[in-house]
Amino acid sequence: MARLKYRPLNLGRWLVWGGTALLMILLPQILTAGFTLTLLSQIGVGIIFALSYNMLLGQGGMLSFGHAVYSGMGAYFTVHALNLISKGAFYFPVTLTPLIGGVAGAFFGVIFGYVTTKKSGTTFAMISLGIGEMVAACSLMFAGFFGGEAGISTNRVIGEAFLGISYGPSIQVYYLIVGWALICMVAMFAWTQTPLGRMANAVRDNPERAEFVGYDTHMVRFLTLVISGFFAGIAGGLSCINYEIVTAENVGALRSAGVLIATFIGGAGFFFGPIIGSIVFFTMVTAIGSITQAWAFYLGLLFLVIVLYAPGGFASLIAMHVPVIKARLMRRLWLPYSAALATGIALLAGLVSVVEMTYHFSTEAGANPNMKLFGLAFNVTHAAPWAVASALLVGGFIISRFAWNLVGRTWADIVHILQEQSA
Amino acid sequence: MSTAIELKGITKSFGNTAIIRGVNLAIPRGERHAIIGPNGAGKSTLFNLISGRYPVTQGEILLNGEVVTGLKPFQINRKGLSRSFQITNIFPRMSVFENIRCAVLWTLGYKYSFWHRLGGLKDANLRTEEVMESIGLKARRDTLAGVLSYAEQRALEIGITIAGGAGVILLDEPTAGMSRTETADAVELIRKVSQGKTLIMVEHDMGVVFDLADRISVLVYGEVIASDKPENIRGNPAVQEAYLGTEAH
Amino acid sequence: MEFFLISMLNSISYGLLLFMLSSGLTIIFSMMGVLNFAHASFYMLGAYFAYQISGWIGFWPALAIAPLLVGAVGMAVERYGLRTVHKFGHVAELLFTFGLAYLIDEAVHLIWGRSSVPYAVPPSLDGAAFTLFSTEYPIYRVFMMAVSISMLIGIYLTLTRSRIGLVIQAALTHPQTVETLGHNVPRVFMLVFGGGSALAGLAGVIGGNAFITEPGMAAAVGPIVFVVVVVGGMGSLVGAFLASLLIGVIQTFSVALDYSFVNLFAKLGITIGPNTPLAALWDLTISQTAPVLPYLLMVLMLIFRPKGILGTREG
Ligand SMILES: Nc1ncnc2c1ncn2[C@@H]1O[C@H](COP(=O)(O)OP(=O)(O)O)[C@@H](O)[C@H]1O
Ligand SMILES: [Mg+2]
Q1: How many beta carbons lie within 10 A of that of residue C52, not counting itself?
Q2: Taking CB atoms and an 8 Å limit, are A210 and B102 in contact across chains?
Q3: Is there a contact between A260 and A326 (Cβ–Cβ < 8 Å)?
Q4: CA–CA separation, C127 and B1 (whole Å)
Q5: CA-to-CA distance for C14 and C35, rounded, in angstroms?
């Protein structure tokens, strides 16, 4: 019996990993628009980085504001290694250079980790911020290593092509990233199934009890940080190969903030959360960033909405629907969801209008008061468009509250039914 | 060497108030020892000192003849002392199985390993199943610890405490808040799991105490006023006045 | 001597400004357990509001209105944001204020653009207050100190004389006592958060034109304020005050000093060339290391004295 139960589970796991691999390999063939390869490469690197971040936030309960230190140092060591290799200082295959980044990331994890991991919670958050700022400030001091304003550039094509692989074309770099991403995903998932990974959860949930079953919580957090630094360093090494340049931004606060936002949006409570998070994050940055300057504002807003109303991120939103689908109760939700969607679109349209008009007004109104939004052309210095936009915003807000109340009531019913079914 | 725990002149003050005032106590290996006393006497505080949760103000604690004063909780635990808590202290977001398994990993030598797969640790998983069996939570294997009933959580608390196979076990009010039948079950459980071990327990229920204990110490206002066999404690006038007497009112 | 005196005055005015920020942060942190990541964003909002308002109706009204506006924003944030996430714990609150800081940054970009705005010292405060040896000391710096010191006295009086002040004081040393205050705790929290934000806003009003009003100002000063709170000790206003002055001195003096190890070794008769091991390190002048010093101080503090200068509790 036990064996019968075990097998399908394993099969499922193989399917998930195999499907992911296949998807990553085939995607560039399916989506062929110009920017997709750049975007997909970014997402691939971002997945490794966000998963490494979630070892701290999700698995270990450590909220870090300075994770870019580890990926950034990994990137810098990789870029210097690449430059040394191309000078002939030593031989090392380019394919494996992200490992150099990984070792560098782990090394800085050892250096900084001991102090940072003494405590978790707010103290950890503050120290990680301080260390992040310290490294960022150092990057301006040591121009030899960090390359000052210009950064350090490199050339990933070194020597003869091997079996046709030179890493000249970006599709080859993409497959390099996919290979590393798959290895790292499997490795980081495996980590969650090891004694250290499990004790990281224990220390996150109840550090005191963990000490009374023999574990030094400081050590558990420290080792977790070092391993997380290793994977972050690999991500840094890959981004170095991808862009062929490393600048101080790679260790900066904005990069640290980015990985926090991506991970949290995706959902820190699930292993696959950061994967979703990276996809959403980079797609938003690329897609919305190509349309409007205000993309970061929308991203911040999305983050706040998630913090306030869905602190488990997208992953938890998906996970909470699984039992509903199994119990065939989804049909109850379609109507409330449609209502929420329709009103949400009105609210969003109002919001976007106000934001875009404000932006246009404050930057260009003097030179050119005319702007186009949603296919409509109008003059931002006139009152009418403002009235329409505000009406949409306020009206959308009011009616979407009704819709969300309906959603809430329906969910309460469904939870009730599910509880009765399981009892 | 046959003493499991020895307290030498233990004192503990919070600020200016001395809560534990010069406790001397020696508990031989294999004994089931109960500590009783009125609320606020300092029983839990004494456990917190022995297990390293609080630093002692003065005095020395020996575990199997070795000084453990000043060591951290995990260091004392690794030397073979394990404790439970008066206020349930478990991993609420993990399943019962995971709770117990966390408690067996260190002693089985897996320590901080990130090169073993938990699913493949035959000894750890077997030991976990055994402990679940003995605390009667096998049926709740995959339930989150946070949603267990109170009595189940108390059983899990004991399970976590004994899982690592420590030779010295400290239980702080294991039956507090339980019904009569639950208490009876708990007594049997404690008797079973403390077989061949040194057990020190704080307990309010006199029935449980006289049922289980080989010896009893009475702690009043941070001082041990008597430490003796149950029958002698029952007859001790000082104890009756200070403690049992007030109970009878 | 001249350099020393002028730098000392600058240190004090900068340190006092830091204290206007760190005092609010410390009080909010001690009472509510919330490390307000957006605190420096309120500072920035204060500067931008003052810039906008003084463009319309002049600097003096702005000096009063801008901090009040920022305080109102702070109260709204507490009421409609923090209170919602409170049930998810301190990490969620931290994340919320982090998101808020990010959002305020972007909003400032959208409304006032990505470069600095010309928020200038008002003409009535432009000029020299006095001449020290050969340096003219600006009136505005004196004005900043005057505002900061009156604020300091204001905080002191509020804390020692008013009912809410006594509650705050009790909460600083015994955070758990706040819970025993009874029904008006949420209101106290809202007022404290609003008050702290208003203080930060005021710091922005007087700091924005003394230094520079730009979208990066929150990100530049925010971590420094955290350093002040850690170094001073969580929950200690006096500690925050000392640490503010200390950081003020370190930052002001270090940017002006051009000594490096090379000079030091030269005095000892050792020459350092580009080929000496770690040449990049010995070559650094103190002014080049200035940006790192506060963080280095913070890390060292956390290693050797995690409680901070005057803190009563650890993290
Ligand atoms: N961490 C602490 N700080 C201050 N006082 C404490 C602390 N822990 C316990 N006490 C005090 O010590 C006394 C004894 O408490 P405790 O050991 O829990 O008693 P018992 O377990 O015997 O009921 C109580 O008065 C309690 O208030
Ligand atoms: Mg007790």
Answers
A1: 16
A2: yes
A3: no
A4: 84
A5: 22
- Dihedral class, residue A379 (left if φ above 0, else alpha if ψ from -120 to 50, else beta): beta
Tell me the pairing of strands B32-36 and B215-220.
Answer: parallel
Band of pLDDT at residue A17, cut at 50, 70 and 90: confident
CA distance C131 to chain A (A): 35
pLDDT at residue B248 in the model:
41
User: Is A396 found in the same domain as A257?
Assistant: no
pLDDT for position A315: 93
| Number of inter-chain CB pairs under 8 A, A vs C | 120
Least confident span in A394-398, C219-223, C307-311: C307-311
Q: Are residues A79 and A37 in the same domain?
A: yes
User: Does residue B42 have its Cβ closer than 6 Å to ligand 1?
Assistant: yes
A42 and A187 both lie in a single domain: yes
Q: Which residue of B has its CA nearest to A218?
A: B74
A409 shares a domain with A380: yes
How do residues B204-227 score in pLDDT, each as one tens digit? 888 899 989 999 999 999 999 999
Q: How far apart are CA A9 and CA A19, in angstroms?
A: 15
Q: Do A133 and C100 touch (CB under 8 A)?
A: no
Q: Is the CB of B48 under 6 A from ligand 1?
A: no
E strand or H helix at A195, and its extent?
helix A195-205
Which ligand is closest to the CA of B221, given by its number?
1
For the CA of B86, the nearest ligand: 2
ipTM for this prediction: 0.93
For residue A9, tell me if it sits in a domain. Answer: no
Rounded CA gap, A73 and A85, in Å? 18
Atom of ligand 1 nearest to the CA of B46: 17
Interchain proximity C280–A119, CB inside 8 Å = no
Residues of C in contact with A358 (CB under 8 A): 110-111
Q: Do B89 and A223 touch (CB under 8 A)?
A: no
Q: Please give the sequence-ordered ranges of beta strands (E in DSSP) within chain C, or none if there are none.
A: 128-132, 135-138
Instruction: Give B75-106 pLDDT, tens digit per residue.
Output: 999 999 999 999 999 999 999 999 999 999 99
Judged by CB atoms closer than 8 Å, whether chains meet at A194 and B118 is answered as yes
Q: Same structural domain for residues A277 and A350?
A: no
Ligand 1 atom with least separation from CA of B219: 22
Amino acid of residue B37:
G
Choose which residue among B11, B17, B19 to substitute to test ligand 1 binding: the one with the highest number of ligand atoms within 8 A of its C-beta: B19
B3-244 is classed in which CATH architecture? 3-Layer(aba) Sandwich (3.40)
Same domain, A227 and A374: no
Q: Where are the domains of chain B?
A: 3-244
